[in-house]
Amino acid sequence: MNTSNKTATLTATMAAALALSACQSTPSSPVIQRANSIYETTGIAETKVKAQQNAIDSAQKTCQSKQVIIVDDTVTYNGILDERTGRMVGQVGAVVGSIFGTGSPELSRDDDYEYMINFRCQ
Question: Which residue from 103, 89, 108 is spatially nearest to 50, judged by alpha carbons?
Answer without folding.
Answer: 108
